[in-house]
Write a structure and sequence with these properties.
alpha/beta; Rossmann fold; 10-stranded mixed β-sheet; 10 helices; about 40% helix; elongated
Length: about 280
């Protein structure tokens, strides 16, 4: 992790989603008095004739489109009152370029987009899967909903997971910077679990200082209840969960299902594996 302050990277490529991803990164950075590092990637497959050129030549001669997206993203972050910088990287894949950028600048966290264009054997998409498996830092995967923009309500489903505190801190950052309310949701299988659920929600609510909160307990199917509640909120933030014995599942079945079914913006938070205690929790 960087020694000179908190730094969050944001990978941009699609001009339709870049601004929203940068806004999320800026919200998190502001809460930690940190900075935003915008990463763009020019992909040159190894068998491509472009591999004969240096990275500098490729960036200068063939990177106009990516540079335009990068520059626009940097300007958006600048308007959110956070220090920001950006750089284009040349790599054989998006995942390689993004990870190179994160490691070069020693970033504490990364925001990436998920557009749900997956192969049958992919969890969230090949590039996103690779980044989630290989990144040492915290990762926020954001699927932008149709109504992305003004945030008035944030839904935080609460689970007992090593990623739960990261999800809560992201929900708080978004709420603080948008003057929004956070609804904490716990879904249980039966009424017998309600008391324990309310205790867990109260404990989580205590960590969201300075934010207006509401606690809700629902009984039923977890993804179904979360998706239903998400319809009343602009953003839903979930911590990753380890479910099942399939090793490639780096997010968990519930967050995946919610991300695919919910119409609004969904952010999946995965705590980094690079250290026993990530910078987000220390701060």
């Amino acid at each position: 992790m960087s020694e000179d302050g908190y730094r969050i990277a944001v990978a941009v490529g699609n001009p339709d989603t870049a601004e929203q991803l940068v806004r999320t990164a800026a919200d998190v950075a502001r809460e930690r008095d940190g900075e935003v590092f915008v990463v763009g990637v020019i992909v040159t497959p190894q068998e491509s004739p472009f591999a004969l050129f240096t990275d500098e030549v490729i960036t200068r001669e063939f990177g106009d489109e990516r540079r335009a997206v990068l520059d626009r993203a940097v300007s958006v972050a600048s308007g959110r009152d956070v220090p920001v910088s950006g750089k284009l990287f040349v790599a054989s894949s998006v995942a390689r370029g993004v990870l190179h950028g994160v490691r070069e600048r020693d970033c504490d966290a990364l925001v990436i987009g998920w557009e749900d264009r997956t192969r049958q054997n992919a969890v969230l998409g090949s590039n996103v899967d690779r980044i989630l498996r290989r990144a040492d830092c915290d990762v926020l995967v954001e699927k932008i909903g149709a109504l992305a923009g003004t945030v008035e309500g944030v839904l935080l489903p609460v689970a007992e997971s090593r990623h739960a505190a990261l999800a809560a801190s992201v929900a708080r950052a978004i709420a603080v910077n948008n003057d929004a309310r956070v609804t904490l949701l716990r879904v249980v299988e039966s009424r017998r679990e309600e008391s324990a659920a309310r205790d867990l929600l109260a404990e989580t609510a205590d960590s969201l200082s300075g934010v207006e909160t509401e606690t809700v307990v629902r009984v039923g199917d977890v993804p179904e209840r979360i998706v239903a509640e998400s319809e009343r909120h602009d953003v839903t933030v979930l911590g990753a969960t380890r479910s099942g014995a399939i090793r490639r599942r780096v997010v968990g079945t519930t967050p995946q299902e919610v991300g695919r079914r919910a119409d609004g913006t969904v952010i999946l938070a995965k705590r980094g594996d690079g250290s026993l205690v990530s910078r987000v929790f220390r701060l």
